[in-house]
Amino acid sequence: MIYLDHAAATPVCRKALEAMKPYYMEEFFNPSSPYLPAKKVASDYEAAKAEIAHAIGAKGNDLVITAGATEANNLAFTALSLDGSCRRLLPQDFANANILGVPLRRHHPSMLYLETEHDSVRRVAEALGGTTIKVLPSGVIDLQDLRDKITDEIEMISVSLVNNELGTIQPLAEIAEIIRRVKLDRMKRGLKRQLLLHSDASQALNLLDISVARIGVDLLTLNSAKIYGPKGVGALYMSHEAHLHPLVTGGGQENGLRSGTENVPGVIGFATAATETKKHLKSNRKKYQKLKKILLTELQGYELVNKKHSIDNFVVLCYNGIDAERLIFLLEERGVYVATGAACAASKGEKSHVLSAIGLSDAQIAGSLRLSLGELNDAEQMHEAARVINEVVALERKRVNG
Ligand code: PLP
Q1: φ/ψ (deg, to 5) at 66
Q2: pLDDT tens-digit readout, 314-353
Q3: Helices in 280-377 by DSSP H: which ranges?
Q4: Three-class SS of residue 3?
Q5: How many CA atoms within 13 Å lie on the side-chain side of 124?
Q6: CATH number at residue 78
Q7: 168 CB under 6 A from ligand 1?
Q8: Does the C-beta of 66 come closer than 6 Å to ligand 1?
Q9: Is there a contact between 249 and 239 (Cβ–Cβ < 8 Å)?
Q10: Do 211 and 286 belong together in one domain?
Q11: CA 224 to ligand 1: nearest atom
């Protein structure tokens, strides 16, 4: 098998798995229990949270642990107030919006989000009546469009650090600087409305050196499943400017922001994976640059979609006139696993909103493949993958052209 879909899922790294094991059996206690062994588990849990936070230059208390990035993204939007400043959003507002697709607000938009965001941002933002910010054909945010759209009503801006279909890295520090100026101007005019920057960094932590202070975000989503940690674990970083509202209420865990017995093994695994990832950032980047080069040199008859500002482990190829869904199927038969884009969108057979946003035609979108490299790959596999993809594409071209 040659697995080229690390953006969809990564295997749990051995160190993370080993670190998690004791918390399933010997150290199974509920961290909220009053006896000593449980208190030790609680303290290990807090230490693991601090370790995850350290990976982004934050403190354990700045994080809310969630059941994945989808929940963290949903939670981030609870920092919005419903009508400018009066009523805060309640869990049922979100539930209604998510389940029924009910727009929560119609009078004026109070949030902006990048048109290429993952559905876990896009769907909520749409339901909240948010306005999209355009991307340029490179997939990078159109900063002028952002400037034009930050009206006095805007309270939050959501821009992912790395796009999950293209691997595009967004200039968050520049966005934060624009926000800082708007805030200063608002202050001068006596306007008190908050202006928060949220970023979904699900696809970023494995290759980028993230520091929340340096990039200037108020809310940052992390995803264990994309960095060789366990699935179903994520975190939301929040600065003291962001005031969240729980989506899940109950026993009051996570400072009341996310009730439910803590997923201790998951968080231990997430922390180990985050530390491991951080240790190997530079060497991994170099490795993927080399592997990418092999692919781009040996593959034939493609157009590279993510030419600029892309993270090193993403290769998006367009084979005009070919059906990428068929390619995926034919490649799988030969042991090569690739994707057309976001796994969730692909499973619903939807056209990619990301590739549309960068101006690709329907035929180009239909012929696009996403290859995302990772720990399971080496140079030999790249030569083999290129050979197999070339062969399958040539067969398909022959079939299509009769
Ligand atoms: N955000 C981005 C950018 C992603 O790539 C993903 C997963 O593919 C998610 C959010 C959702 O993560 P999860 O399914 O772990 O909740």
Answers
A1: -130, 175
A2: 999 999 999 999 999 999 999 999 998 765 555 566 789 9
A3: 281-298, 324-333, 343-347, 353-357, 362-366
A4: strand
A5: 25
A6: 3.40.640.10
A7: no
A8: no
A9: no
A10: no
A11: 15
Phi, psi of 373 (to 5 degrees): -90, 160
Q: Are residues 287 and 274 in the same domain?
A: no
Residue nearest to atom 2 of ligand 1 (CA): 202
Helix or strand holding residue 20 (H, E): helix 14-20
Look up tokens 């080496």; give the residue.
378
Q: Give the pair of three-digit tokens for residue 94.
A: 């979100």
- Cα of 73 from ligand 1 centre, angstroms: 9
Query: Is the beta carbon of 199 within 6 A of some atom in ligand 1?
Result: no
List pLDDT tens digits, range 213-251. Answer: 999 999 999 999 999 999 999 999 999 999 888 888 889
Q: Are residues 307 and 243 in the same domain?
A: no
Task: List the structure tokens of 95.
Answer: 């539930």
Which two three-digit tokens encode residue 284? 């991994």
Do 90 and 205 fall within a single domain? Answer: yes
Residues of the domain holding 61: 14-278
Q: Give yes or no for residue 70 CB within 6 A of ligand 1.
A: yes
